[in-house]
Amino acid sequence: MTRVSRAKGGWAALVGATALSACVGPGTVPERPTGVSPRPAPTSPPGQRPSYRPSNPPPRQPTAAVPVAPVAAAPVAGATNAREAGLVRAPSIAALPIDRAQATSALAAFRLSCPSLVRRADPSALTTGADWRPACDAAAGASADPVGFFQRWFEPVQVGDGRAFATGYYIPEIAGAREPRAGYAPIYARPDDLVDVDLGTFSPALAGKSIRGKVQGTKLVPYDDRTAIENGSLAGRARILGYAADPVELFFLQVQGSGLVRLPDGDVLRIGYASQNGRDYTGIGKLMRDRGLLGPGQASMQGIVDYLHQHPDEGRAIMRENKSYVFFRLLDGAPLGALGLPVTGGATIAADPKFVPLGAPVLLSMDRGDANGIWIAQDTGGAIKGANRFDTFWGAGAEARAIAGGMSARGTAFLLLPVGVIDRLIAAR
Question: Mean per-residue pLDDT for 86-109?
Fold first, then answer.
């Protein structure tokens, strides 16, 4: 969430060829006051690390499924948005598998997205706000028949070759403290000297591109990388929101983009993505796999975490190969996605807004059953780039961690657009 929106790309991206996104991730989470909510927990004497450590449940074993075959279409290399990638009319929604319970959650999430859909510009170049108004008006009274709602008001279209890859993300909970303690790692707010640069303001040829850095003399230079930050380079330049008991868990909280910090007195700090240092993301799981560090059954988020804990010095060096570093802000409510709206476990999906209008429904037909159904694109992620790359959100808790930790699904994606939009787009080609 901009995943919640984060660095995200889902845990499975740690062990795949694709870098993690964000994901609840990097995005435009509004500034909110400090959020602290009570939660009973044993306290630890000052200076000692709390005995609490988040459970590391094994990844949930998937239920195999047979995805619907995509419509034959050649992928378009170098496409920068959905229209350039190519649009293909897909089978009717009535011919596609839709679970009623999952559609119910998706309808509720879509309803939340409507105010944004009807007013925001669409970077995918597919829709206008007016296109969404009829479906949004109808959504208010459609609770009795969620499947019928999507069948009545939407038509599926395939973007590019339709071959989809989906990972998963969730809201982690880590142990921490408000004050510094031995072995704890600081959780930084956005530094005062971090500068965002929209390159499109300098040249139309650079539209849509941006960089982050810091001013050094008369030059903009790259911002401090992970190694420098962990060695204390931000002293006096960034506010510290709290301290994480486990640097490994903090690393993966940055991957997810938001989470909960459980304090010794039982209170909880809710933190969300604020910004990132502008450095490229490197998926450490792929590095570890390529170096033969992950044995059979370890190619999952849980296996990576175990290895890093068991080899602390080597693990620190591996994590520092990912130069990207995420900064946080304090939140007081539900996790928010890239639209600035609450995200819903089992219904929210992160997507690339250049290929999927944020707020739009997406139907996934994948090779594992828990990823199938209608999802609503309410989030983004740093590794979620291109057509048909998605990150499924599963909420919080041990079950969410178990599902997200092993989520790696391939199959077919169909974007659901308001009735009539596909005809207009095809006629304009």
Answer: 91
Instruction: Identify which has the larger pLDDT, 337 or 196.
Output: 196
- Is there a single domain that holds both residue 293 and residue 265? yes
Both tokens of 35, joined, read: 């959020």
- Report pLDDT for 8: 53
Name 113's Cβ contacts closer than 8 Å, sequence gap at least 6. 339, 341, 358, 359, 376, 378
CA distance 2 to 378: 9
Report residue 5's pLDDT band, with 50, 70 and 90 as the boundaries: very low
**Domain annotation covers residue 3:** no
Q: Is 369 helix (H, G, I), strand (E, B) or coil?
A: helix
> Do 354 and 205 fall into the same domain?
no
Residues in the chain, overall count: 429
The distance of Cα 257 from the centroid of its chain, to the nearest Å, equals 7
What is the count of structural domains for the chain?
2
Q: Which domain holds residue 411?
A: 11-42+50-186+243-427
Listed in sequence order, the DSSP H helices in 18-167 are 82-85, 100-117, 129-139, 146-153
181-236 residue pLDDT tens: 999 999 999 999 999 999 999 999 998 889 999 999 999 999 999 999 999 999 99
How many whole angstroms from its chain centre is CA 310? Answer: 28
Task: Give yes or no: residues 372 and 349 share one domain.
Answer: yes
216/338 same-domain check: no
Paired residues of 37 in beta bridges: 268
